[in-house]
Specification:
homodimer, 7-stranded parallel sheet
């Protein structure tokens, strides 16, 4: 056992005894990547008990943070041990999240939920690598459920949410959002829709638009389990309990219909695939960096030659 | 010369003689990928004359399509041969672009610009693979400039725009958009900002907010060439000519300061890297598909073992 592994093993023991600072340190190690992150993965994998993972995504301004805050607060008050992993898009220019996202989730934090924000940019390997490992840490430390909140704007965010046990997509009033959700590919991954800000004009129309799009998808035969469309007003706490009931109902169907195992196998495969692609990309970068100059010529031809060399063909 | 290559060579000859249907067919071949796309790349690479490439990106609703339409129309009327490559996010659920994006760009089409829409989803290999090859076809067929329009919501779209000669980022009034542009990493890649819908309240404040963010980035020493912030009202055609002048001024600085070569080398490298990563990802998928079952265990460990096998280490 080398130095990293000893430190990590101690941290894991401390974290599992309920020390939240130790949990935070483990999460930081995973977020930074590299060998310490690998050591954390090795140590926490056997401890992970299979916590329920709920993905929550939506456009900026949809109120999904407030909703996640309310949900986590309500779960903590009900005696559960929820953790929130909030993924903030941020810029290297300003060095972090701009809107002070780290001070959101006040209700949940006060109620005892564990809250962690992470930036989507500027850390090695990206979201698809860090998030599954961070969920594993939280699971190993006894948090359940783990709520993963992301901004649903990019493919990576969609991928992260789509491997949750239950993927919740938050929209607000107006046709525009339903269309945007569709464009972003969220209709396909959503297990549940939430029309938030239900007190505003157009919320019921937004629900109807979503139902219409779902009708269309049933016609094309893609829906296995038609997503419910819930209405919430997160700022007032309205609809939060019903939302949790709907999440539980979805999770219950996954269990009774034997589909939970499939979801988790898919999650495992997605993580292996992301890591494998990352390792190969690193090998590519190393190979390109080793070249005195990138050969001129048709890029596809240059790439095929380099790939053949790399794969030893 | 096999069948594909003969067909492609004939198509390229026809396309270069000014037959727009042949150009469209070449673009379709590139978009579909595979061996025909490779044959098109081989055939068009020597013909590409180095057309000016302008990337235009912005959030949904920023009016960037109308702006691109106006710009292309104005260029065509001035005797240039502009082409537009408009990247539409779309959903496999509905089988294509939802808002009828293909019927946008009416002014430009009427004025004689070549317009091509492509969907971001559902075609093999993705945007990063298809766009550079499509630009090469348009360049080889004598179109200049080539305007590439994407929705600036995902990393891939940002990457596509960031390798243009000039990257134009379109925002609208309101602090929110400047913040979103920053969050999406657009501040770093923009060579020019456009505050569109300048006739609406808040446009001048949006410009000031952007200037403020740019001041901040100069302090951190990241700006080589500070982006200008232009005001346009695309629906009225206001500011379009000034925008083109600003694009030309930026392009002129790239040329006189010897930076255009660097940009294009970066574009070449980015394309080789995307293709290489794609080829290796395909090798990964093949390898995973060949396994009777993905091994259980810590995903990182499983991935490292598979990577070592693949790379013959």
């Amino acid at each position: 056992m080398d130095g990293d592994e000893t430190v990590v093993a101690d941290l894991v023991t401390t974290a599992c005894s309920g020390d939240r600072r130790a949990v935070a340190r483990l999460l930081t190690l995973v977020e930074r990547g590299g060998e310490p992150a690998d050591a954390v993965a090795e140590a926490t994998h056997p401890l992970a008990a299979g916590a329920q993972v709920v993905g929550i995504t939506g456009a900026p301004g949809s109120g999904k943070s407030t909703l996640t805050d309310g949900l986590a607060a309500s779960l903590a008050e009900a005696g559960r041990r929820p953790a929130v992993l909030a993924v903030d898009p941020s810029s290297p220019l300003t060095g972090g999240a701009i809107l002070g996202d780290r001070v959101r989730m006040e209700a949940a934090a006060t109620a005892g939920a564990f809250i962690r924000s992470m930036a989507t940019r500027g850390h090695a390997g990206g979201l698809a690598l860090a998030v599954p490992g961070m969920v594993r840490v939280l699971d190993a430390c006894g948090f359940d459920p783990v709520l993963v909140e992301t901004v649903g704007v990019g493919q990576v965010e969609v991928d992260v949410v789509s491997v949750a046990d239950t993927a919740v997509v938050v929209v607000t009033a107006g046709w525009g959002d339903a269309v945007q959700a569709n464009k972003a590919g969220l209709l396909e991954v959503a297990d549940l829709f939430v029309v938030n800000k239900a007190d505003r004009p157009g919320a019921h129309e937004a629900r109807r638009d979503l139902e219409l799009m779902l009708d269309l998808s049933e016609v094309t035969g893609q829906a296995v389990d038609r997503p419910a469309v819930m209405l919430t007003t997160a700022t007032e706490g309205t609809g939060i309990d019903d939302l949790w009931s709907a999440i539980q109902a979805h999770h219950g169907r996954l269990v009774t219909e034997g589909r939970l195992v499939g979801r988790r196998t898919r999650r495992h495969r997605a993580e292996v695939r992301s890591r494998l692609e990352h390792l190969l990309t690193e090998a590519v970068e190393d190979r390109i960096a080793d070249l005195p100059a990138l050969p001129d010529g048709v890029p596809g031809t240059v790439a095929r030659r380099l790939a053949a060399e790399l794969l030893g063909e």
